[in-house]
Amino acid sequence: MPEVNSKAEYLIGVDLGGTKILAGVFTNSLKCLSRAKTSTKAERGPAAVIERIARCAQDAADECDIDLKQVRGLGIGSPGAIDPENGRVIFAGNLGWKDIPLKRELEKRLDLPVFLQNDCNVCTLGVHEVELEARPRNMVGVFLGTGIGGGLILEGKLFTGFNRTAGEVGHMVLEVNGPKCTCGNRGCWEALASRSALFRQIQDAVHDGQKTVLCDMLGNDLKDLRSGDLRKAIRQGDKFVAHIVEEAAKYTGIAIANLINILSPEAVVVGGGVMDALESEMMPVVIETAREHAFPGSDKGVKILASKLGDDAGITGAAVLARRETK
Amino acid sequence: MPEVNSKAEYLIGVDLGGTKILAGVFTNSLKCLSRAKTSTKAERGPAAVIERIARCAQDAADECDIDLKQVRGLGIGSPGAIDPENGRVIFAGNLGWKDIPLKRELEKRLDLPVFLQNDCNVCTLGVHEVELEARPRNMVGVFLGTGIGGGLILEGKLFTGFNRTAGEVGHMVLEVNGPKCTCGNRGCWEALASRSALFRQIQDAVHDGQKTVLCDMLGNDLKDLRSGDLRKAIRQGDKFVAHIVEEAAKYTGIAIANLINILSPEAVVVGGGVMDALESEMMPVVIETAREHAFPGSDKGVKILASKLGDDAGITGAAVLARRETK
């Protein structure tokens, strides 16, 4: 690993996603100075993607007139199963990666210390440190996007457990005979309330003859459907879409109650693209359902809130990771 | 609080239950020297129960010829919501207690330092320290009895979280529209797999005309039904009872998979009266179902096992608590 240059005052945070890569340059007090974005192009294979990550980080540095020599460390959040000690992506389905030495390869290209973690863990770090100012000793972050993931801060630290997989909350079964999930089981939270679940329910219903303003907006095949379209449809009075989103919010509330019962956190923060697009539609239902289902006493004083970091959660958390590791 | 007599070499562990009180005297290396048992008589009110706890502890000491002056501390596990710092039972439904200063009252009677924790947390401490020799840094204990509860050991320590209620696993919803639970919700693990859930399902079915050897054994009203009777019925080939128990084992496996996904523990240990009576009937199904439902990779190397401590889990864990607190 390249040595930490303790005089270097900047941090880079990278959010590696299945479709896009985001990079941000941060000061040591976690102020974001610049951002860069590029498509992932996972189909070109790991070497090409790693090259794109390096270029995206350089673009972000260049944007705010900083040389990489002034950067103390780079944090990166990756989807999938991660080995943080060895800096390897063990498995990431949406990238098609298996055992990729991401840390080593990026360090070679950038001559910077690189620190790797799972993307939802990284987002949780960002929410905890920047949004909640590191105040709650115990916090759960959950992220509703294409899938559903989460991260745990316990006793002030990121908790990853024995297999480093703690926080894999999306595959919590909420309905034993519920809809099929990509993981092979039935009734996982992810199969009930992720973007994929919402879109599948809508597309199946439209296929069966359900009317919705979404078809007026996008055509009957609902090509290019996005979370924001659901918000637009609901605001145009589409009761069908409103019902689907409300059900997803109820399941999310129940999942959060389960997490409160199991972990007794001080705060549960909900983020991700679905929540960013549908916060005002979903959060009241999420909170009400979670409070109804939490065991009496266990949710007393517990904050349940939507993250305001939006797309910045990943790069911010990755910068937090780099700061923690280079202290 | 009475001062810790550091020369005193013994510990007392007490298990306060809704129907019975158990006490045990332990050496500092957690060998049990004697046990005592008495009925709780909760209907007589808190003062009478506290008197009975004190007498039970004295009986256990007397049994192995020890004077209370030779005891360094007394640990006690109580059902319900506990405030360990102040030694109060905030609320315990099955005792009918509300805000009882159990620690202070027992210290007054016994002139010994007393340490209080929730009963399932105490059992988890006992399993971790004595049965697993404190090896796993991260462990979940779950206990199937009249209700279902649990405890968490995270990074080597008992984890209780923000409201001290962590490990309230029995009210994890597994089936959104499942059977009604005593907590007011539907489809909690406890409503699907506790002793009460098993007995209710059997009694409802018998009421609807289901035939079972349990009626030959106990009469049609199934008065005095016990977990051990289910084992006897299954061994006599009663397919109806076998099916009910198998379903409960499946739900338990799914709940354990959820806990593995969320917490990534190294070991999950299952105890409690239902498991003590039905281990060989339930555990193979529990393990198979948990492994099927755990997210790929997250259960790698994770031990899922039945506790062998049986009725001793509570007193042993309470002695562990007393040892930790008087070190």
SSE blueprint and pairings:
The structure is a homodimer of 327-residue chains.
Chain A: E1 10-16, E2 20-27, E3 32-39, H1 46-63, E4 71-78, E5 81-83, E6 88-92, E7 97-100, H2 102-110, E8 114-118, H3 119-131, E9 139-144, E10 148-154, E11 157-159, H4 189-193, H5 195-207, H6 213-218, H7 227-235, H8 239-263, E12 267-271, H9 273-293, E13 303-306, H10 313-325
Parallel strand pairs in A: 1-4, 4-8, 9-12, 12-13
Antiparallel strand pairs in A: 1-2, 2-3, 5-6, 6-7, 9-10, 10-11
Helix pairs in contact in A: 1-2, 3-10, 7-9, 8-9
Describe the protein's architecture and organization:
- The structure is a homodimer of 327-residue chains.
- By secondary structure, the first copy, chain A, is an alpha/beta fold.
- Chain A folds into two domains: 10-126 and 312-325, 2-Layer Sandwich (Nucleotidyltransferase, domain 5); 136-308, Nucleotidyltransferase, domain 5 (2-Layer Sandwich).
- The first copy, chain A, has ten helices and 13 strands.
- Chain A has helices at 46-63, 102-110, 119-131, 189-193, 195-207, 213-218, 227-235, 239-263, 273-293, 313-325; strands at 10-16, 20-27, 32-39, 71-78, 81-83, 88-92, 97-100, 114-118, 139-144, 148-154, 157-159, 267-271, 303-306.
- In chain A, the strands form three sheets. In chain A, strands 3-2-1-4-8 form a five-stranded mixed sheet. In chain A, strands 11-10-9-12-13 form a five-stranded mixed sheet, with helices on both faces.
- In chain A, helix 7 (227-235) packs across helix 9 (273-293) and helix 8 (239-263) crosses helix 9 (273-293).
- The two termini of chain A are 15 Å apart.
- At the A-B interface, helix 8 of A face helix 8 of B.
